[in-house]
Amino acid sequence: MNLLDFLVPVEELVRRDGPEGCVVISSRVRLARNLEGMPFPGRAKKSDRAKALERIQEAVAQLPQMEGGLIRQMDSFSSWEKQALVERHLISREHAANGEGSGLALSRDQSVGVMINEEDHIRMHALLPGFQLEAAWRAIDELDTLLEERLDYAFSAKLGYLTACPTNVGTGIRVSAMLHLPGLVFAEQINQVIQAVNKLGLAVRGLYGEGTEALGNIFQVSNQMTLGESEEEILAKLRKVTAQLVEHEQNAREALLEKKPRMVFNTVGRAFGTLANAFTISSKEAINLLSVWRLGVELGMFPGVPRALADELLLLCQPAHLQLIRPREMKPEERDILRADLLRSRLAAVARPSLPPNHSDALDK
Amino acid sequence: MNLLDFLVPVEELVRRDGPEGCVVISSRVRLARNLEGMPFPGRAKKSDRAKALERIQEAVAQLPQMEGGLIRQMDSFSSWEKQALVERHLISREHAANGEGSGLALSRDQSVGVMINEEDHIRMHALLPGFQLEAAWRAIDELDTLLEERLDYAFSAKLGYLTACPTNVGTGIRVSAMLHLPGLVFAEQINQVIQAVNKLGLAVRGLYGEGTEALGNIFQVSNQMTLGESEEEILAKLRKVTAQLVEHEQNAREALLEKKPRMVFNTVGRAFGTLANAFTISSKEAINLLSVWRLGVELGMFPGVPRALADELLLLCQPAHLQLIRPREMKPEERDILRADLLRSRLAAVARPSLPPNHSDALDK
Hints:
Order of helices and strands of chain A: HHEHEHHEEEHEEEHHEEHHHHHH
Strand order of the largest sheet of chain A: 2-3-4-5-1-8-10-9
CATH class of the largest domain in chain A: Alpha Beta
Helix content of chain A: 40-55%
Number of helices of chain A: 14
CATH architecture of the largest domain in chain A: 2-Layer Sandwich
Oligomer: homodimer
Largest interface: A-B, 28 and 28 residues
Distance between the termini of chain A: 57 Å
CATH superfamily of the largest domain in chain A: Glutamine synthetase/guanido kinase, catalytic domain
Number of strands of chain A: 10
């Protein structure tokens, strides 16, 4: 089966709105687990990896969550399909590089998934739209419980779950929220906020996770420690910090609109002008401009336009999503053209922004 | 009288279309003359300057060309009014710095004018839209003849007309064409063309003349020598070179549209997107983007939009033209806001560009 036929259509995906969706794009909890008595994937022989893969696939296939889902080996995907899975945050960039001996399971609705033989034998996650860390935790905890009934996990009474990298030992949990923070970026408060979050022992990363840029003012906040705190404590900390970040971001947006309306309208207007009138555009530029436009949509500068349109275009403008809608392999310049054509056509019906009638002529403060 | 009430309204001015107006914005011929037996303005005492001014004003006032025109001393203009005269190319930047003891005469239609006590006692010019060097020459030659009947010019049988700067001695003529050359700039042929023109003994300058930048891809081509060639020879050379530049520019535009349509549409589309959606914009950025948009209008990317709209906005976006429509002095940031508001409102009815239906998907060559 073509992966595209399985993936939730983008226009449907972006309509799955979650709480605080204006700031919190998605909530994610992942657990790292390994099989007892089997070498970790990075050190395993080919035959051991194959054995682990088989055992885990079999166990995962029996889970009710996987009914109607997809269970495949990584070498059955084209590299563009793997890239599309990265763009949807369904697999890690590292897992996209894996082939034979690695696998992937996704539930029908793609809210839960299991990477097999990534860094650990099992990396399972739940991914939900908006601010739903609790729900994501419950979903993955339930899957983990069912899986543990079918598999022997490597577990130490002293350390907890054993993992390939010591940073995951213990609970093996990583709780993260993907946040859209253009207000804090424009207000030049983002670095201060990142430092404060880091001091709480949490990590702030870019759009595609560890070691990636904060493209499009999108930041991932997650726990760094997995040992010494319970899952509930980690979850509670992430929930609290995320709620604070949402508040900071909303305050920053309100303050910008009150104190620097011209700056906001100018930045958003120009971003829209370029998106709606370019005839070639890179994915990086498109994502950065769409991020700014998304803020404008949130601020009511484009009446009647749903945020979902910005989210849809943010996904569709990424290279693999663009490539997969075309039958033949495109050069990067061809994708840049297709991306611009798509943006112009999807934004053709969106009216240009205008200042609210009560807006004063005054300069920004 | 308010200068603005005298100046031809911008919307009327830009409808005065001339031959080859798509490339040749205007044609200009100016003559430098001085009074016999009077020190040049730069060396004259105040009383001598005043005497020269009075004599010339009196003579100019009698000319039929000045019926219904304006004859004023430079200190009667506000500095914004002088700046507006510079933006219309009716006086030099140097003359805008002059006050008491200097003067200006302009015909009712502003096609001919006389600067009094600029660098020379008399700098008279004819300025016509489009490629009309001959007509400009005839107009100024006629004015010069009538003026010479009323004033004693400093003239040497050996050298010709005497001027303050030796570069003007002889004929005192400067013939120039203001050219819009975005095609040559985008095709990266402009430097080569400028070098070739320089080798012919002609100068290439920016939008506001000597020592100014080529804002908005606008270049002035003019003779450098005034001695050793007759007016007719100088005129013939300028006419020939201008005609060649028009041809080169048109070839460059055609070649761009044929070989790099995406690049052209992308550059023009983005320029339009910014102009139509910015909420603050500097005059430099506006002029550069309007120049690109003017090219797009010429190339038919905005069906039904006249080139005059681009020319009108090019004039209106300049600082003094903006300032003079408001009763109170604005800060530069306020002008940037007013400029953006003006552009958005004037471009509101202009539809976004779209590729012609027969345009292929092919990459640029």
